[in-house]
Amino acid sequence: MAVFSADRAILDFFVAHRSAAITDLAQWMAGGDGNATARAMFALLVLAVLAMVRQWRAVLSLPLAYLSARLLATGLKELLEVDRPSRKLVVVFTGGYSFPSDHAAFTAAVAMTLLLTVDWPSPQVRRAAAVLAMVCVAAIGILMIYAGAHWTSDVIVGWALGAGIGWLVSQAAEGLVPHRKSSFATWAKNARSDHR
Is the pTM of this model over 0.90? Predict the structure, then answer.
């Protein structure tokens, strides 16, 4: 599989416009083991909060979506063997193949699964969560391109792959754990009334 000319033009734009602050953030985001503990602790915190408010579909689905996206993206990388950008263009060299981006795949899978499996207290809260999720997923994908860890096409395909996995996992969870009146909605309502 070839790298598209647009991939190269976009990476060249980022290389020409790098800043120290964004480069530091991109290095942290792309830096595998250095921040793996922080990411794992954040994931456990999210799952604990979801369990506290009895969002069992999300608690069961999120790890499955993450692992499925990560494994499928990694398998496709080994199958397709698309090289990463040249070392002279990157701020973080992660090694291995680049297509599709596993960061893009697993973040999109987790975001889609979270949006579809949580019983949101209102449509407004769900829309706000969707916007926040899209901004986070987009920022992580763009940082991967900025860092030179991925081509733009890697990230776009990773997003599509992850969103599809998230949708499939949430549909499977629908049959396993039925909808009910959201304890999250009840919890949020009680939290509001406690502050009055």
Answer: no
